[in-house]
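Incident review: delayed structure delivery

Summary: a single-chain prediction request sat in the queue longer than the usual turnaround. Root cause was a stuck worker, restarted by the on-call engineer. No data loss occurred. The affected request and its eventual output are reproduced below so the record is complete for anyone auditing the incident later.

Affected input:
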Amino acid sequence: MTGTDSGDPMVAVTDRGLAYGDGLFETVLVRDGVPLLWNEHCARLSRGAGRLGFEAPSRAWLDALPGQAPQGEHVLKIMLTRGSGGRGYRPPIPAEPRCYWQLIPFKPMPERWEKGVSVRLCRLRLARQPALAGLKHLNRLENVLARQEWQDDAIAEGILLNDRDQPIEATAMNLAWFDQGQWWTPELTECGVEGTLRRALIDKGLLSIARAGDAPLSRFLNSQSACLFNSVQGLWPIVECFDSDHQHVPGQWPIDGSVRRLQDSAHTLMGYQSNFPTS
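Output delivered after worker restart:
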């Protein structure tokens, strides 16, 4: 395994991660040298590499990275590529993967935890590709184009739908809504990223998976409450939604007890502030 840190940011022009997006990445919250949800991140990286057909770094190699962070909160970004080689799209066998990593200072946004956020529905539709579904792969052009749709800082995130107009995720976060007495998150068997915080909340029995046929956009828009979350930012309640023409979607979501209970569980996993008041 070839490793490159932030002190040596050079990437070979022949690297398949640069040329084709042939690789994976992880963004890990590190607090005082301790990585949060580390087992989930390492497991996802290993699963993803296996699905793409090359080896992930050893756990011992990965375990040495977070401890290099200074005191305070940082994001450890790990990028794993297949390396160089092959002819055109044909991958080399065996591959010689490369792993690049960087530590970036990070400040969370507690005002979004407390007051919630506004979101919009993106025009871009996610393509359905089961072979890549769930992976945090390096080709994120769909997300880039979706995030390019708005510049208004009052809109915190954009909701991504598939070509059947079913909600899947936000541009950089997972999505959940509350109805029928429980929390639901979209099925990700055809597209979307399986977030590590999402995985941890499902494993704890706090999120149920809404199967594709049971998750039209109307179910999300008519839900009792809704939220966004990931393993770096924590959980943001959603309070209002706009369409792709910036017209307000009727209705709004209160920050009620169901939101706060899920937020408390998520933030306990991440060591973030919890116990915010309901609206």
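Verification: The chain has a mean pLDDT of 95.
Action items: add queue-age alerting; document worker restart procedure.
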